[in-house]
Amino acid sequence: MKSLITLTAVLAAMLSVSAAANALPLDTSVKPAVTSLSNPAPKTGLYVGNSFTYYNCGLVGYVRGFAKAAGIPWRARQITISSGRLSYHPMAQYLAPHELDPYAKGKVKDGKLTAPMFDVVFIQALSTEPIDAKSIPTWKKYLKSEVAEVKAAGSEPVVVVTWAKKDHPEDTKKLADSIISAANENGAAALPVGLAFAEAHAGRPDINFYAPDKRHPSAAGSYLYGAVAYSFLFHRSPEGLKFLGGCDKPLSEADAAYLQSVAWKTVRAFYGW
């Protein structure tokens, strides 16, 4: 009996060590309050943001590519404004029906929606808004109002945690803590894209995640953004999917596999899945 107890204790210790070794020390001190979508099978989405979201043919193309490779029905609209702050976006208007709008088809009666046009709405702010002292009050004000408008429309809000500039990696934690805290305050999910950037760079510093301006994403950065969004949306790993990227900038199979793995590990660690 003593031997059995000892063996059990040893195995438990080994599992504990293994789990610790595989855990990602994500660069944030704030845990997300919302850890999954209430809709387990979202089919439509809206991406609202700026150039961080539209670079390299856009997040819309990357998530669509992953979903198509997985055989998941998904369609989405992307609305972005160059250098756009949250205050530039008329969110309520984006979520209202317009003439001949395919996302409103069959969902309008007497000029009003009878069902949400989008299951999920991603909100991506100007990258400096959440950590610039002068911008924070306005950013918080509009994040609160836009999340409320998304919820009022029957959609689920997801606030994008953006990445630090290439030459300011110390901002990764500042951005994550600020954005996750604000998302929590408004009952919205946070998407840990910036944390995935930091993890991916730490493991493969040979991959360039930035455009020459050291701010916007390279094709690899946009691919990782899409992989993180896909992982959260559908609560499944993108690993093994035969999708190498959108536009004319496909990745190598090895790089794509690595980014798929980082995206899934980051999402699981962040949400506690």
UniProtKB/TrEMBL annotation:
GO molecular function: hydrolase activity, acting on ester bonds
Domain of life from the UniProt record: Bacteria
UniProt keyword annotations, A-Z: Signal
InterPro entries documented for this protein: SGNH_hydro_sf (IPR036514)
Signal peptide: 1-23
Protein name: SGNH/GDSL hydrolase family protein
Organism of this sequence: Mesosutterella multiformis
